[in-house]
Amino acid sequence: MEGRTVLKFFFLLLGLLVVLFFTHSPDHTPTNKATEFLDCSNYSSWCTFKNRFQPKTNNLNSPKKPKFINHNTQVPTHPLDPLTIQEIYKTRSILSSYPPFKSSPFTVHTLVLEEPEKPLVVKWKKGDPLLPRQVSVIAIINGKSHVLIVDLGSGQVIRDVVSSLNGYPVMTIEDMNSATRAPLADANFNRTIIARGIKLSDLACLPISTGWFGKKEENRRLIKVQCYSLQGTANFYMRPIEGLTVLLDMDTKKVVEISDQGRNIPIPKAENTDYRYSKVLNKVKLINPISIEQPKGPSFVVEDGHLVKWANWEFHLKPDPRAGVIVSRAMVRDPDTGNLRNVMYKGMTSELFVPYMDPTDAWYFKTYMDAGEYGFGLQAMPLDPLNDCPRNAHYMDGVFAAADGVPFVRSNMICVFESYAGDIGWRHAESPITGMEIREVRPKVTLVVRMAASVANYDYIVDWEFQTDGLIRIKVGLSGILMVKGTSYENMNQVPNGQNLYGTLLSENVVGVIHDHYVTFYLDMDVDGSNNSFVKVNLVREETSPGESPRRSYLKANRHVAKTEKDAQIKFKLYDPSEFHVINPSKLTRVGNPVGYKIVAAGTAASILDPQDPPQMRGAFTNNQVWVTPYNRSEQWAGGLFVYQSHGEDTLAVWSEKNRPIENKDIVLWYTLGFHHVPCQEDFPIMPTVSSSFDLKPVNFFESNPILRTPPNVEEDLPICRAAASA
Amino acid sequence: MEGRTVLKFFFLLLGLLVVLFFTHSPDHTPTNKATEFLDCSNYSSWCTFKNRFQPKTNNLNSPKKPKFINHNTQVPTHPLDPLTIQEIYKTRSILSSYPPFKSSPFTVHTLVLEEPEKPLVVKWKKGDPLLPRQVSVIAIINGKSHVLIVDLGSGQVIRDVVSSLNGYPVMTIEDMNSATRAPLADANFNRTIIARGIKLSDLACLPISTGWFGKKEENRRLIKVQCYSLQGTANFYMRPIEGLTVLLDMDTKKVVEISDQGRNIPIPKAENTDYRYSKVLNKVKLINPISIEQPKGPSFVVEDGHLVKWANWEFHLKPDPRAGVIVSRAMVRDPDTGNLRNVMYKGMTSELFVPYMDPTDAWYFKTYMDAGEYGFGLQAMPLDPLNDCPRNAHYMDGVFAAADGVPFVRSNMICVFESYAGDIGWRHAESPITGMEIREVRPKVTLVVRMAASVANYDYIVDWEFQTDGLIRIKVGLSGILMVKGTSYENMNQVPNGQNLYGTLLSENVVGVIHDHYVTFYLDMDVDGSNNSFVKVNLVREETSPGESPRRSYLKANRHVAKTEKDAQIKFKLYDPSEFHVINPSKLTRVGNPVGYKIVAAGTAASILDPQDPPQMRGAFTNNQVWVTPYNRSEQWAGGLFVYQSHGEDTLAVWSEKNRPIENKDIVLWYTLGFHHVPCQEDFPIMPTVSSSFDLKPVNFFESNPILRTPPNVEEDLPICRAAASA
């Protein structure tokens, strides 16, 4: 028991230090010394050297050396540029003089740019003075969630509203980290771990959002902690200590309740679970080296850190701790006029919803909302050059604030690269029918913006892919590691007929539990301007009259302009098909079609949980595949501003019920991409990527094919390559 | 009228020559002179130098020089190898001594390998003697469709069955070509063309399958011809002579009927319709050169012309005049045992169905079945190196027979290449939650088999993409040129309210007519052997009992093994989701799951035409997305063996109604990929590629992730490149 006592003492000490720090926080004023700026070890123990800016891993392989981004001296140049390190420090300094922060313990949960009003941003042009810089802060002060705006120009807190909503802000990483350690301070917890034959030093624990299921989950920030054995593998996720769930108060770090079931369930074996290349046996190399090469370098530039210009596209790109990637002011050049035309004011991952399909004690609450609970961007780790992104990729760092308001750098969080898979942009060959000697083919090259968020076990790869034909493809890839359940079964032949395992037996004693993934995107379309309409183009079967035609039926496209939000609550129907357009009713093409973009789904899945099930009420933004709302600054997060332990009172589904007018208005399109995931053995011990996507596709936006005039590939343009001498 | 007389004389003469040729056809015996083998100008006027083998365009850019395929000396080495030039000549020689061919005019519509019995092929191993070579011939002799088998060993016709089915064989290219010229022999036709102000020399005509709408389309081979003006553009498709439809007897080449409507509809302008790079003005180059480079060369080999070996895959590949690409004996190597395991015995495009949505006189019959009517492979033209396929692609030629039985070579008809788009095979990074220093990422490289069929205006790109994780993705890309309709309208503001244009006004006087595309795939799955079962894994909502759980609902996977064909007539339901597995019930994984593959749809569309509409009866194979039939040699073409003017009596839908047992049998999976296409201005004058796909994905086929042991990319393996001096 010696070890436990030492641990308890350690956590007590840590707790004291934290309290000391908070109460003395204004003393921790920023200085101009770069070392201190980037040294976040004062408080944020997780903010290790990994989060320091690492120029050496940045774009190593580019033929042109990357421009070194000096975060210490960076200044914003575009109204949407994220906060710089200097601005975050200034914000922290302003807050530290603001009375509530002075007098009470606080944690900073959000500290990002408060984007200027949309009309001002739209009007702003390069060369204009930068718009006033304001900061959106969400902090818990003395147990209350405050929504603040800090004006950097005046150095004032200009708004401070205490939230009356249920739910709490995005967890800080400090919340998550401390939660994983807190159970060790509890004697009962340690006893049961040891009784299960696990060394405390082999424990790896995860903080699991509790969701909300009624009174028990109200009026305090709660989290559940479940643990795994690290013994013999880095892939502890495959070694669950099944049935042991610790309910913690996130603020006091005190254990509220321990549910200690499933002691009879063995911890699955470590063998064959480690996926690290250094650890796998029988390594195989199936494929010769292959690389995307650009002898004259990439065709894109990233101006002033965030403005991406490529081919006929231009857009602003920034990392965000909650959304991950924010694409703003996406504009495409018209091939006829040469003018840049607005397509989308802002696009981002708004929320995720990942319900697991097991109603038992240790599983029912697993209904993650990864953006609003964990911070989708906070979980986006540095990308691995040459593997996460090909050669010639440009890497962009995230600059975020820790719980104490101190900035840190998440290096290489986003990459931008050109992709060429050998695909075809357009083609036509004359056939043997006409015998004409024509064969015209254009290769397809795209620009990809990528991030990969590791929300504990799962890895979400989010791609924004821009095509020269005006199409934007948004793709979500799922990889990483399953959340698995321990079981006493080693073979399906031991499972009594009719018993529900809630998933698939993946290996001895390991069940991959069935779950869904929903990723909801916020797409503020501005097709040639802000005032747009949403049109449902419904394909209906028309029956011909007797004698009218040898045909009995054909499809007709009926256009219906949505007047209000409820007209635009769209459930896809395979046998009642429609297209969904966002058009500008005031802008017609030469022959009189309204210019537009349509949203085109690929494979998706719909939630079929009971709409009254608490998780589905919180995740009600997945009740439809498509929604359209009038633009409203405060409606950006589909699950609500405060998602953690929310009751579902502030979701997209609730806003949409207001049934506001949406015709010829500034409107926002929402799309939910879904996956049902019944795990299979191939997902063990790490999952091959499964992807799905949807497209924003021009529809009568251009007068004609916008890539008609682009050239084919010719031999003379391609590089001359040789194997590296070392290969 | 001078010109007309000359033309008439020309066609009369041509007709006479054709008749002479047919009646003297046995004289045209093959010789061993290569020049004559490859010179198909004797009869096939369309079979020009374009169809000669062109080694110079073959794989120009490969660092290794391609092996030169000498079609003259090629011999089959695998039981599924397509007929060689020698074998086609030998078949022709055997047929020419066979009495019915001697005594009557004939045309050869199909002349391909009669594949040996499946069990023999499965048993055959490299080194075994080649299985007996037989030839499947479909010929029209004296107006009757004969299905013959020619045994090359014995030199005998061993089967000759006159078809009693409605419908005719795939058109020959000679049928199509002569049809486009035949109307010129009709004075009324020429009169109306001239009256419309079109020079006969500017005419380009298309042969359009008539479908079947009742008595009028029976008992003779009919075709409809519609024409366009070539004046001022190669893209005559954009210049329809609207409303003029010539009904021809395909055998007599006589005009049966001319429907001459729409004289008031102007021919749309030629301006801005030509898509050839040499003709476009204001050329733009948006992107720097980009290339997929492989410093050590590709990782695949094509053995003996048709056996592809790549990474952990091996399969047989051949061009086919009807299906296009046939992938056979696809096997994947088990990473644990090192053994090759069967996945699919045969996969191919079985049929297409492309109904247009306009019931009026000149359009109602446009309900194409491109494989059974036009020959999907016959329309696959030589691929364009560097544009249709990247550097390092391997090109495979098609060797087919013309209407007279003489072989010809369709060079570069299929390409095989490795693709790397910068995508991720699998990844995991530990998150800030655990703080562990792990970032493991594997790049995703795939092998693509591609062909592109130009069925007159449309281009279909068909990709079979093999992944190292065992997945096969089948992707269909649509590009090429719309089939458009002339209209008197130049702007939508001229169209009376409520008038149905049957499509979109794309340019002045041009309407892109709404249509669907369905591509039906034949997938003879043999998962670890021939006897397989089809399992529907239905995800259903389970409601919890009161007090059972804070959750009200969760999803449960219910497995249902299909007993008979009707159990496996699958319509996808978004709100009643299922997975569809083909399993081997006799082969279990270590932990007792049956090994299997599942079919995973991405975006698709379903036909909602009236099931009693004649086109939908003929295309009834699109009534479900998935079907499963017991293996039957004679059931490979979803629309029936004789699709041209078929009545729908011999489709997959009819076979499936037999409701035969399919549990633990050799079964065939059928999947239909659908597209609704409401044209938009971006599709004018040539369409950016639109793609959709579906996957065959291992599900408990492997014991675990089969690509766990593959290495990440490292800098040292990648090539060192420079721009070509000429660039």
Oligomer: homodimer
What is the makeup of the main sheet of chain A? Answer: 19 strands, antiparallel
Query: Which class best fits the helix and strand makeup of chain A?
Result: mainly beta
Report the uncertain regions of chain A. 1-66
Strand content of chain A: 35-45%
Number of helices of chain A: 10
The outline of chain A comes out as globular
Q: How would you describe this structure to a colleague?
A:
The structure is a homodimer of 727-residue chains. The first copy, chain A, is mainly beta. Chain A has a domain at 2-162: Nuclear Transport Factor 2, Chain: A, CATH 3.10.450. Helices cover 11% and strands 37% of the residues of chain A. Chain A has 10 helices and 34 strands. In chain A, the strands form 5 sheets. The first copy, chain A, has a 19-stranded antiparallel beta sheet that branches. Chain A has a 4-stranded antiparallel beta sheet with strand order 1-2-3-4, with helices on one face. Chain A has a 4-stranded antiparallel beta sheet with strand order 5-6-7-8, with helices on one face. In chain A, β13 and β14 (340-355) form a beta hairpin. The N and C termini of chain A lie far apart (55 Å). At the A-B interface, α6, β5, β9, β17 and β18 of A face α6, β5, β9, β17 and β18 of B. β34 of chain A pairs antiparallel with β32 of chain B.
